[in-house]
């Protein structure tokens, strides 16, 4: 399994809620299968038994998709985030997505103890920091994640009822985010209630992947994954060139 993202276009990260949806995502040829429980929040976590089953399934799959999982929605607390990330990594998940609800003021100072706690784990497992576009994220913090050994950084939205990524940050700010992450050699993703129609604006910014859940479901992000919608997003992305 190569786990490499496609050159020339953003990869597709698809969040899946159970093992059946994981099969659908693998069959559709997604680039990253993202284990997430949408019913539990923006970064809802799978339970440990299900995580381990998904890891076993992923290891047996020859198609080369990568595997990520979210650790749950938590406060910016070093011990809590560390425990959640360790629990996910211990299940064998190779790409662990950790949400950072950063306050607008003194973001870097508040982040430092959390990153100090996570840095040892970052040496063993690929960690991806999730910043929230609807929480006025301080993009100047991006180099701090690289400094702590993180593998990647992405934007998502915390409040799924408050509009998508582009409702919170203009394309220019997203371009600066992608450039800042790339300058640190971080894997870079964009997500947040993305729709098929957002792809033409976002793909040229050159993120490594675009993340989807709600747009892949028939009646909202907590409903079942719709294979036809997934195939539609997959096809739209395969026709886009990244910068
Ligand atoms: O990481 C990607 C997210 O699961 C996106 O979810 P969403 O499209 O429902 O905001």
Question: What ligands does this structure carry?
Answer: glyceraldehyde-3-phosphate
In CATH, the topology is named TIM Barrel
Main CATH class = Alpha Beta
Q: What's the architecture, going by CATH?
A: Alpha-Beta Barrel
Oligomer: single chain
Average pLDDT metric: 95
Q: What is the N-to-C succession of helices and strands?
A: EHEHEHEHEHEHHEHEH
Structure summary, number of beta strands: 8
Specify the helix fraction band: 25-40%
Secondary structure topology:
Elements: E1 11-16, H1 19-28, E2 32-35, H2 48-60, E3 66-70, H3 78-90, E4 95-100, H4 107-122, E5 126-132, H5 142-147, E6 152-156, H6 165-168, H7 171-183, E7 187-191, H8 199-202, E8 209-212, H9 227-238
Parallel strand pairs: 1-2, 1-8, 2-3, 3-4, 4-5, 5-6, 6-7, 7-8
Helix pairs in contact: 3-4
Bound molecules: glyceraldehyde-3-phosphate (G3H).
